[in-house]
Amino acid sequence: xxxxxxxxxxxxxxxxxxxxxxxxxxxxxxxxxxxxxxxxxxxxxxxxxxxxxxxxxxxxxxxxxxxxxxxxxxxxxxxxxxxxxxxxxxxxxxxxxxxxxxxxxxxxxxxxxxxxxxxxxxxxxxxxxxxxxxxxxxxxxxxxxxxxxxxxxxxxxxxxxxxxxxxxxxxxxxxxxxxxxxxxxxxxxxxxxxxxxxxxxxxxxxxxxxxxxxxxxxxxxxxxxxxxxxxxxxxxxxxxxxxxxxxxxxxxxxxxxxxxxxxxxxxxxxxxxxxxxxxxxxxxxxxxxxxxx
Length: 293
Hints:
It is a single chain. This protein has 293 residues and is of the alpha+beta class. Helices cover 53% and strands 17% of the residues. A hairpin with a 5-residue loop joins strand 4 and strand 5 (101-110). Helix 5 runs antiparallel to helix 6 (182-207), helix 5 packs across helix 8 and helix 8 (226-243) runs parallel beside helix 9.
């Protein structure tokens, strides 16, 4: 706005982002010629004037001193002795890449004479340049946010991928020692199948490009009994607990604890909590898991 005011030779100027509304535009910036006093209708809601609002929806508007003096939109300002209407005024809208209005640039009171058609053409060109700069800034910020969401999404999944891998590795080790025990063999294979299913779903999340760009992990809620989720989570961390010689105690009520939740995500939360409990409890410690309403 400083460049526009200086290049065209105006006493003051304002650029505001956002479409017209009764509450006024969004973020704005103003520029005033240093050697001049407050010029134009200071403090007045210019965005509420029809002639200003029209710029948001139509072509540029340029008013001379005579046109302002007789223009109905400025009558209220003309009766205010402290401000009064400007001597000349010109405005052009900022257009986004999709053609929608993203703001307005106004110049008030030309220092030498009145605004001309050439001044208006220059202002329109400057408005186009400003529009490009604004849209480029918004695009860069949007790309940064998308990239940040992607990094957060991948970091979360990378952390979650470790949860099913540890029980799978432990299960393989146990299977090597349980070949002659069919019952134990079945328990371990069931655990490994469940963890493998979780791993497959996490990989599906990684392949969902749209979800990566949005930075969102999908929740698949269903009616589940918390008993089963707790037992599965406990089994997934049992190898870690055994290696650290922890004593695990499970205290569950006799009646089911029904929840509307994503069993995979809930299991991951519990597994993380139990894993941390194992890591930060001194060896041969006591860890109790209890559930109640």
